[in-house]
Amino acid sequence: MNSTKRREIFARLQAANPHPQSELDYASPFQLLIAVLLSAQATDKSVNLATRKFFPQYGTPEKLAALGVARLEEFIKTIGLFRTKAKNAIATSQLILERHGGLVPQSREALQALPGVGRKTANVVLNIAFGEPAIAVDTHIFRVANRTGLAPGKDVLAVELKLEKVTPPEYAQHAHHWLILHGRYVCVARKPKCLQCGIADLCDYKSKTKA
Could you list the active site residues? Predict the structure, then answer.
């Protein structure tokens, strides 16, 4: 795929959704970090249902750390891997207090040093909370990048690095959101909605659906 076609893809995604937003509910960088940590192998909807139960009262590092693992488990037990996630969320809260004065760090290295925080989670926080043009490649973005030919790669890191290289600078800030939402609602896994797709004529996918 050439640069002209890539630029047109992003231009159309921007025209359709000029100000894309995360579908996770949060009121601070810390709450965003915890919500993303909880969202691994879970839907944003299920995470929002859980965090609404404890963010209002325990939505700071101090209060969440004081809540403890066992009590947090009760709030998030509807989410997959809730025991591991509760342990990581509490440990992350404690380390943010101990190492960063209660503030979420603004570097990928420092974020990834927190329990349960991988590169994808770190990139989401950097992009949404701190306005950095980071791209967190999840299953949706990986699928869209490969299926369309926008930024093919064998693994998520390869796709991330390719997207960083080929995304026009003026679209870098919101590329993450446009691609994830496109994969979540249009370029879906089993039967992509090609007839509803605003970039279908620019896409390299040969097996486009007819209905």
Answer: 120, 138
